[in-house]
Amino acid sequence: MGATLFRKVWDAHTVRTLPSGQTQLFVGLHLVHEVTSPQAFDMLRQHGWRVAFPERTFATVDHILPTDSLRRPFIDVMAEEMTAALERNCREFGIPLTMPDSGQQGIVHVIGPELGLTQPGMTIACGDSHTSTHGALGALAFGIGTSQVRDVLASQCLALEPPKVRRIDISGRLAPGVYAKDVILTIIRRLGVHGGVGYAYEYGGPVIDRMTIDERMTICNMSIEGGARAGYINPDETTFAFLRGRRFAPSGDAFDRAVAWWRTIASDADADYDDRVVIDAATIEPTVTWGINPGQSVGVGEPIPNTGRDAATDEALAFMDLAPGRPVAGTPIDVAFIGSCTNGRLSDLEEAARIVRGRRVAPGVKALVVPGSQTVSRDAEKRGLDEIFRRAGFEWRGAGCSMCLGMNTDRLEGRQVCASSSNRNFKGRQGSPTGRTLLMSPAMVAAAAIAGRVVDVRTMLEEVPA
Ligand code: SF4
Question: Is 237 exposed, middle or buried (0-12, 13-18, 19+ CB in 10 A)?
Fold first, then answer.
């Protein structure tokens, strides 16, 4: 029986089995940002420790940045203090830091792959839940808490329980207007937000094989929302082509040697999995969340559930105050947000711009596009996407996490309803304790911005204005 990529990479990075039964795992790359690192650096200072492998550590600023103006000092005192603390810590501990003046700053899970830092067969850790994104390139990537950030800074190791591996195949072919976001929302809806607890998810099958790396990142990004400890996709020719020529990827002969090794770490054809799931792509529709976790979703043609099904549904319906039993399509929105580490990449903006071109944002809707990185922003501007969005009435912002979470100046107000391409619809996630988030693909967000309500993007794809 062959081995999974998970088993091969885990074994290759195992230092030893700890008395607790956990594995001491060496971390190939530690990504750091301003929110979960200050206390970890303070703990290092208290103990008089150094960073064990600064060359395997890379920092950026993303969560708290004001995306409307990056002029320092930031008007938001908290943002300025946290940014300055990260600068001080990186200087003192010798860690490379990407700031906005570098032209390469962005959301940590966007710039890692973009710069070629993320590579197949690596173990990666970051103090952010959505670190699973990096699994799209065949890495084992774990979101960690602040005390583990300290552990990795001090020792470059993590103590982890080995999870089981569930293979999820997406068979068939996606219909036009159905995107990677719809695939992962459907996976989470069918397997549940706790369905992945104790598992790593390996995604595969013809639909995944045909996906670009951007699309694969959308899939892996939300593994954590389905309860999985990590999510990954076996590296293939698409992966190698994506990495060739990137700043931190190997070059020349070293690249060819790396590819030869990367091929060997993919799961074997006869690998043994702890569980297998197959989902037929033909059953996946453009998908919209109606509740307060990413598993509470329906296809755009389906109704919002009625009360009385279970306590979680009733709690969500009471908070969201939408229309139970009525189609989710037609739900009015106040805000449209295109961005985040789930869907803030160039191809996401291109798909959204296809919908927006030649149309206008509905009166009363606040619409934002926030590129995931400065590189995405520049590439989009070269293609004229910024102008398409601006002309339609969208705000075109600087790179950062923005309205994915309420830690910066981009926030919902009161009971606003936001069509969002981000990954979490928890109560209060977008900054207002009573604000309501509907997760969907960037193209669906664009369609909702134009219509002023949730609408099936496929109807707009059919009628793209000249
Ligand atoms: S975009 Fe959202 S999920 Fe991604 S790193 Fe930023 S805050 Fe976390």
Answer: exposed
Q: Is the CB of 61 under 6 A from ligand 1?
A: no
Which tokens go with 254? 């070293």
Tens digits of per-residue pLDDT, 287-308?
999 999 999 999 999 999 999 8
Q: Is 109 in the pocket of ligand 1 (CB under 6 A)?
A: yes
Q: What are phi and psi of 315, to 5 degrees?
A: -65, -45
Atom of ligand 1 nearest to the CA of 62: 6
One-letter identity of residue 111 = I
What pLDDT is stored for residue 466 in this prediction? 54
Query: Whose Cα sits closest to atom 6 in ligand 1?
Result: 401
Q: 372: CA distance to ligand 1 center in Å?
A: 10
Residue appearing with tokens 């009733």:
314
For residue 320, the CA-to-ligand 1 centroid distance in Å is: 22
Beta pairing, strands 164-171 & 157-160: unpaired
Residues 73-94 as b/e (b if ≥16 CB within 10 A, e otherwise) read: ebebeebeebbeebeebbeebe
Q: Residue 139 pLDDT more than 70?
A: yes
Q: What integer is the mean pLDDT of 97-104?
A: 95
Q: What is the pLDDT of residue 363?
A: 98
> Cis link prior to 19 (omega < 30° from 0)?
no
In angstroms, the CA 77 to CA 79 distance is 5
Measured from the Cα of 109, ligand 1's closest atom is 5
Q: What is the pLDDT of residue 463?
A: 67
φ/ψ (deg, to 5) at 391: -60, -30
pLDDT in tens, 193-249: 999 999 999 999 999 999 999 999 999 999 999 999 999 999 999 999 999 999 999
Ligand 1 pocket member 341 (CB < 6 A): yes
Confidence label for 250 from pLDDT (cuts 50, 70 and 90): very high
Ligand 1 pocket, mutate which of 397, 405, 418, 437 (most atoms under 8 A from CB): 405
Residue nearest (by alpha carbon) to ligand 1 atom 4: 341
